[in-house]
Amino acid sequence: MGEWFHQRIIETGRLPLFCFFVALIVAFVFTRVNVRLIRARVGWFRNVSVGEMHIHHVVFGVVLTLLSGVAGLLVSGVSDTWYAVTAALFGVGAALILDEFALILHLHDVYWEEEGRTSVDAVFVAVAVTGLLLLGLRPLGWEDSGETPQGPWTAVGLIVANLLLAVVTLLKGKIWTGLVGLFVPVLLIFGALRLARPGSPWAHWFYAPAARRPRPGLMARAVRREKRWRRPVIQAKIAFQEFVSGRHDLPSTRLRPRR
């Protein structure tokens, strides 16, 4: 295990990325455990407040990412060890920010409401993308060397083609296929060619009754496929999210305490 870690992580220069990856996961889990204990009013776990003002942990995340980011720029060419330390601190700050991503998106506190699941989705996306980078995959077919046997223009063409396929896939509502497809381009071909999800922008533009040329048959197929295949996957994802981060089932129209 030690030899594998040295060859795959240290010798390839991925130690800072690995430290960021581990710190992101650990800090997110620790934060969620902490806020769930606060929500349950267990022991001495309480919100951080100054007077009557509650200090959200996204504030600490912003400060930590700024400090660690600047420190990383200063030590990147001086010490690999300290560079890895700053990367880990950056991961902690990123976890604190992404854990309240929904607050930033909606500009009001939706932490334990349905909209709060967006924060967990953001963390999952960050973990997945970082993990793929850690495995050595590169987005859009880009490689470190920047050279291909076919020449630079062929490489540029492939990158542009992959990017267009990724945009189409994302517009069809297939978020995970689009994101993973950035690293495994063959997935983008299937994502771009297959039917769009019924609530996606693509379906709204080309399938819905309000479209210039509505296609009710395709919309009906998309709805049936959503109910048969997509809904069980979403339910499984929500169950896993709630296992990790707690339930997000408070209606957004009701005013409740922060945690």
UniProtKB/TrEMBL annotation:
Membrane-crossing segments per the record: 15-35, 55-76, 82-107, 119-140, 152-171, 178-196
Protein name stated in the entry: Integral membrane protein
Keyword annotations from UniProtKB, A to Z: Membrane, Transmembrane, Transmembrane helix
Organism, as annotated: Planomonospora parontospora subsp. parontospora
